[in-house]
Design goal:
The protein has 338 residues and is α/β, with parallel strands linked by helices. It has two domains: 190 residues, Rossmann fold, CATH 3.40.50; 127 residues, Nitrogenase molybdenum iron protein domain (Rossmann fold, 3-Layer(aba) Sandwich). It is 31% helix and 15% strand. It is built from 13 helices and twelve strands. The strands form three sheets. Strands 7, 8, 9, 10, 11 and 12 form a six-stranded mixed beta sheet that branches. Strands 1-2-3 form a three-stranded antiparallel beta sheet, with helices on one face. Strands 4-5-6 form a three-stranded parallel beta sheet. Helix 4 links the parallel strand 5 and strand 6. The radius of gyration is 22 Å and the shape is globular. It starts with 9 loop residues before the first helix and ends in a 5-residue tail after the last helix.
Length: 338
């Protein structure tokens, strides 16, 4: 849940342009076991006073980490100017009590994040603007920004890529980023809170588990269902529900999701349907599709167990608000137990 750096010349920064083409702005959807879990180790050994009753704690910095892309990164001193490259990183830093000096313009939670200077989007960041923020640490999103890492390294600050693609990854990210920014106790506290909440919610679940499908809209009459390895798929699994989609099904236009036909949906007839519409201002899919007889006849619609999920929390910004998602879906999956 670094190599040595040299600052690039101003001329280089002024001419550097990065354009990353993403198939969707919803790419934070990988599996819980897709990438290595970051391992953090101090680079200096603890100094021990011979006369002391207990050994002196190891210094927090310098710190060496193997990030989610398998890169060895060294942070020489406690960071004071952190640039957060994705909404997930922004939310995590604020949860840890750390305010970044830079954020993508789409990162708007918590509300005070909007007071932080933006550098463009997560997919097309303005590197010159980031350089002007004088970061001493850049935290990137391993799922959507692997191609950007070399360019970010050229800015001269340590770059650490973190994976947020599943529930366990989010928990581990709190511990890892907590260490990176010098607040390991807070990171451990938040991670443990999520683990404890999952334990409490899943304790004594009924024997009969609901059949569930999470559907994302990618255009008119274009629907894709979340695979178990997607972010929301890992939440469904944590709650013990049965995903009607299997992992071996082909990936559709949206990473972590597979094509879903009306015939397949009718055949599976799930107990619960989770709708995700990433189009800002669009009407809830549950309301739109309720007037369609093919959808209205499904068991989930008949029993009122359809849910319009917030696309930011459930797809675009995996992070500490996973607790909210777990609570919301637990009530939907097991209404008699809540």
């Amino acid at each position: 849940m670094l190599r040595q750096f040299r600052f690039a010349s101003r001329k280089r920064l002024l001419t550097l342009t990065i354009a990353v083409v993403a198939t969707a702005a919803l790419a934070a959807c990988g599996g819980d076991d897709a990438e290595p879990t970051p391992a953090v180790t101090p680079t200096a050994a603890a100094a021990t006073e011979t006369a002391a009753a207990e050994p002196t704690p190891a210094p927090a910095f310098p710190l060496t980490i193997t990030d989610s892309l398998g890169r060895s990164v060294t942070i020489p001193a406690k960071p004071e100017r952190v640039v957060a490259m994705s909404p997930s990183v922004v939310e995590t830093l604020f949860a840890l009590g750390v305010t970044p000096v830079g954020r993508p313009e789409t990162a708007k939670y918590p509300p005070e994040a909007q007071n932080v200077e933006s550098f463009g989007t997560s997919y097309q960041p303005n590197l010159e603007r980031i350089a002007g923020m004088r970061p001493d640490l850049v935290i990137a999103d391993a799922t959507i920004q692997a191609q950007l890492v070399p360019a970010l390294e050229g800015l001269g600050a340590p770059v650490v890529a973190i994976d947020f693609s599943g529930v366990d990854r989010v928990i581990e990210s709190l511990r890892t980023i907590g260490r990176l920014v010098g607040v390991p106790e807070k990171g451990e506290e938040l991670a443990k809170e999520i683990e404890d909440r999952i334990t409490a919610v899943t304790r004594n679940l009924p024997a009969q588990r609901p059949k569930v499908v999470a559907i994302i809209a990618a255009g008119p009459e274009q629907y894709f269902a979340a695979k178990p390895s997607s972010y929301i798929g890992t939440i469904i699994e944590k709650l013990g529900a049965e995903n009607i989609v299997s992992e071996d099904e082909p990936v559709g236009r949206v990473a972590g999701y597979t094509n879903l036909s009306q015939e397949r949906l009718v055949q599976a007839n799930p107990d619960v349907i989770i709708f995700i519409n990433p189009v800002p201002g669009a009407p809830p899919l549950s309301q739109t599709l309720r007037n369609n007889p093919a959808w209205a006849g499904l068991k989930a619609f008949q029993e009122g167990r359809v849910f319009d999920a917030d696309p930011v929390i459930y797809v675009q910004s995996a992070g500490p608000r996973v607790v909210q998602a777990i609570d919301e879906l637990a009530k939907l999956f097991y209404p008699s137990s809540r």
